[in-house]
Amino acid sequence: MGMVFGKITVETPKFEVIHSSPDYEIRQYPPSVVAEVTYDPSQFNGDKDGGFTILANYIGAFGNPKNTKPEKIAMTSPVITKAEPEKIDMTSPVVTKDVAGGRVTMQFILPEKYKSAEEAPTAVDERVVIKEEGERKYGVVGFSGVATEGVVAEKVEKLKRDLERDGFKISVEYVLGRYNPPWTLPPFRKNEVMVPVE
After folding, report:
1. How far is residue 104's CA from residue 124's CA, in Å, rounded to a whole number?
2. Helix count and strand count (H, E) for the chain
3. How is residue 161 annotated by DSSP?
4. Model pLDDT for residues 135-175, shown as the tens digit of each residue
5. What is the pTM of this model?
6. Distance, CA of 68 to CA of 121 (rounded, Å)
7. At 68, which CATH number?
8. Is residue 50 part of a domain?
């Protein structure tokens, strides 16, 4: 029942809040190990979440894990989605929008017990890449409900404006973190948009 009402019972990444405002937080995340797959949603009938099953098979969420150990890996939250931004001529201000049919990278952050990519089991599916991510600093804003493209774009643009207003140097990229399974009732879902900052 907790999953329907949004209770998060899996490991989530640790972070330090280094700045807080009424509009957002600046968070510092320590290094982590991730499993990721990059794909064209058209391979999955336009479904931008098409990589989820590939990663879930790697960790063994649907049965036997598809890795070389084979070792079941605990699910963590959030599921991270990154869309490749559209390349356009430089103008001012800089605005980035997701492109229909553009490539998407989906990541599962592996449990904290994996300190390096070498410690994590190798995926049987060659599309799954295990890699280390260094320390990261993000401007973050959370929201509930369904993370539709329109809602996400609106949250990202507002977050970027707020960060620039407060003097932060930002990236054109952004990350979407979704903490709950799709059967969670929309008002109880936890989502975050994250913009890299310097």
Report:
1. 21
2. 2, 9
3. H
4. 999 999 999 999 999 999 999 999 999 999 999 999 889 99
5. 0.85
6. 6
7. 3.20.80.10
8. yes
Taking alpha carbons only, the member of 65, 46, 45, 68 closest to residue 54 is 65
Assigned domain for 103 exists: yes
| Sheet containing strand 16-20, strands side by side | 16-20, 25-29, 136-143, 191-196, 175-178, 79-83, 104-109, 32-39, 129-133
3 is a domain residue: no
CA distance 109 to 140: 17
**Is-contact 168 198, C-beta < 8 A?**
yes
Q: Tell me, yes or no, whether 139 lies in a domain.
A: yes
The total of structural domains in the chain comes to 1
Kindly tell me the sign of the dihedral angle through the C-alpha atoms of 108, 109, 110, 115. Answer: positive
- Distance between CA atoms of residues 25 and 16, nearest Å: 10
Cα(124)–Cα(132) distance, integer angstroms: 18
Quote the domain boundaries for residue 109.
16-196
User: Prior bond to 78 cis, omega within 30?
Assistant: yes
